[in-house]
Amino acid sequence: MAQISLSRRLRRTPFSDGVEAAGVKGYTVYNRMLLPTVFESVEADYRHLKSHVQVWDVSCERQVELRGPDAARLMQMLTPRDLRGMLPGQCFYVPIVDETGGMLNDPVAVKLSEDRWWISIADSDLLLWVKGIANGYRLDVLVDEPDVSPLAIQGPKADDLLARVFGDRVRDVRFFKFDKFEFEGRELAIARSGYSKQGGFEIYVEGSDIGMPLWNALFAAGEDLHVRAGCPNLIERIEGGLLSYGNDMTDDNTPHECGLGKFCNTHTAIGCIGRDALLRVAKEGPVQQIRPISIDGDAVPPCDRPWSVVAGGKRIGQITSTAWSPDFNTNVSIGMVKLSHWEPGTRIEVETPDGMRGATVRDKFWI
Ligand code: THG
Asked: How many angstroms separate the alpha carbon of residue 272 from the centre of ligand 1?
């Protein structure tokens, strides 16, 4: 394989020195930043994630900060999720939509205070959209990208590792809430969240200068817990049904097509820019939707472009993510399927690069 050429445009992270020393074998580019994809092998990393604890450099989950009297108003303009009940110290998974109801991003919103928010973004240029709205509506709010880099601690031993570095109080942080903890004289927000179903935390590392000191402290404290460098794992995230913006959905899809209707309160999300468009489409209901799909046979190749899904000679959808699952002994997949074929148990065919394969629509993801 050809190499990727590094330059200023492809940003390193505060933890890149640690990631390289840990022997990273593969990177992807996410928000114009390096995101590790493999350390030992995708399958070995998966086994380790499910057994021990990993430290993930997810700096590429950049923050869009909203600060000022109109911060809460601006945040509600971006999403059909009703934010009125959200308190400081909470995190919300929020679909972000444009004026047509199309998905622009699927970030985690972090409410620091009434007038200070972070939007922890997936891979799209959300900062530009948010700045455009703030300026176009003449809102009293500052919008920028702060020097904040998330470091995820994921796996069954995540509580034990973080308790050693930040104290036992970290065990009390509840799912999708955060609290502040001190490291080298700095107050850091630590949330119980992360892009795996194995449990764990995300540390919002404020100030690049403490990146490597924190990285080193975690590895020194966790030697006997078998702590390793890791990264979002393709197999585990498909088993868990965690969506990937740009892969599983784009701005052509509504949140309802993505199965994110449970994170929308379109009727009461007054001010949301996509509200009218979403009210129109929600009335009819989506005609295609994301589904877990199991592809028959042995391991299929990586899915680097959508694979057509067919039934009765007609195209009825596409597969956008797939991986061989050792735990479930099948190719776990995420696809978008038309209404006529989305019932659980429906048999379909997938055009893989290796030829046609039978597949089954499932009722739920694997974990
Ligand atoms: N953490 C943070 N920022 C992120 C991600 C993250 N930004 C990029 C990307 N990931 C955004 N996408 C997601 C997708 C899924 C989840 C979070 C961000 C997620 N979903 C849970 C689920 O579906 O089970 C829980 C949702 C809920 O119940 O609220 O965690 O991972 N900081």
From this structure: 21
* Nearest atom in ligand 1 to 93's CA: 29
Q: How far is the CA of 93 from the centre of ligand 1 (A)?
A: 6
| Residue count of the chain | 367
pTM of this prediction exceeds 0.70: yes
pLDDT in tens, 305-344: 999 999 999 999 999 999 999 999 999 999 999 999 999 9
Query: Shortest CA distance to 212 belongs to which of 11, 8, 12, 16?
Result: 16
Question: Domains along the chain?
Answer: 16-61+147-238 (3.30.1360.120), 63-133 (3.30.70.1400), 288-367 (2.40.30.110)
Q: Given the CA of residue 243, which atom of ligand 1 is nearest to it?
A: 14
Structure tokens of 353?
A: 């690069």
- Pairing outcome for strands 228-230 and 314-325: unpaired
Q: How confident is the model at residue 263 (pLDDT cuts 50, 70, 90)?
A: very high
- pLDDT higher than 90, residue 1: no
